[in-house]
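wait is this the right file?? whatever heres the structure
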């Protein structure tokens, strides 16, 4: 018999699904191993010691027995349960979308310190009442890099020239269009200079240094339209959490 090993990781639960009558299968995004799935036996029962540690968004230390297949969670210690996210429907909806997006765009067991930090800081700020929609924009923009489908934001996406001004964003061409290239895509989205600057900022911003960002309603609408259409066309993803978020948005 092969000895199984006990391992300890620090991470955040990004997915938690029921399995059988009393178990859960959780997915953790951790500093040490990246994304990893674990069986949490008995975690569905409220009196189980694994029940609270296995909840979505829980940030903690996890001890598990590794094996060839799915490892088994044996113990956990909560660092933060991001309580204010759980207690607010809108924060929950944004956060659920963020963790699902991360889950869908990453492979198992490929650690990334920067991605862990991005996830932690995004949830931390949402928990702390920062603007969840703006944080989601930043997360979505950065994840385009991770997915390898980042748009061109420094030169015109059609003629590749650096210009002083761009007038629109083309999902098809994958970036901004200058005045001479507007005809390259008749479905391009008209974007203001503020939107262009913010999209560039979101790409490079270190979230740890996030200050107060206040956005006009028109700017929000433009960024949202760009990101939504871009994801739809280039990512091939269809996320339930995204649909729920769009439905909630109508009541905002
Ligand atoms: Zn051009």
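ok assuming it is, sequence goes like this
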């Amino acid at each position: 018999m092969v000895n199984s090993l006990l391992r300890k990781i620090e991470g955040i639960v990004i997915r938690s699904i029921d399995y059988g009558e009393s178990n859960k299968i959780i997915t953790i995004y951790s500093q040490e191993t990246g994304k990893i799935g674990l069986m949490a036996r008995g975690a569905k029962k409220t009196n189980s010691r694994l029940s609270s540690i296995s909840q979505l968004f829980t940030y903690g230390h996890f001890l598990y027995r590794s094996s060839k297949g799915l490892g088994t969670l044996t113990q956990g210690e909560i660092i933060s349960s991001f309580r204010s996210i759980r207690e607010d429907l809108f924060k929950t909806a944004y956060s659920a979308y963020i963790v699902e997006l991360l889950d869908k765009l990453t492979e198992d067991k490929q650690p990334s310190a920067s991605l862990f930090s991005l996830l932690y800081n995004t949830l931390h700020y949402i928990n702390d009442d920062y603007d969840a929609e703006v944080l989601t924009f930043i997360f979505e923009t950065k994840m385009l890099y991770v997915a390898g489908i980042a748009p061109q934001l420094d030169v015109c996406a059609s003629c590749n020239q650096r210009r002083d001004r761009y007038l629109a964003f083309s999902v098809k061409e994958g970036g901004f269009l200058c005045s001479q290239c507007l005809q390259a895509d008749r479905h391009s989205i008209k974007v203001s200079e503020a939107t262009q600057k913010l999209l560039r900022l979101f790409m490079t911003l270190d979230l740890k240094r996030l200050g107060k960002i206040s956005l006009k309603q028109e700017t929000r609408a433009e960024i949202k339209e760009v990101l939504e259409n871009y994801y739809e066309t280039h990512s091939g993803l269809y996320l339930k959490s995204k649909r729920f978020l769009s439905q909630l948005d109508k009541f905002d």
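The radius of gyration is 20 Å. so i think its the right one actually
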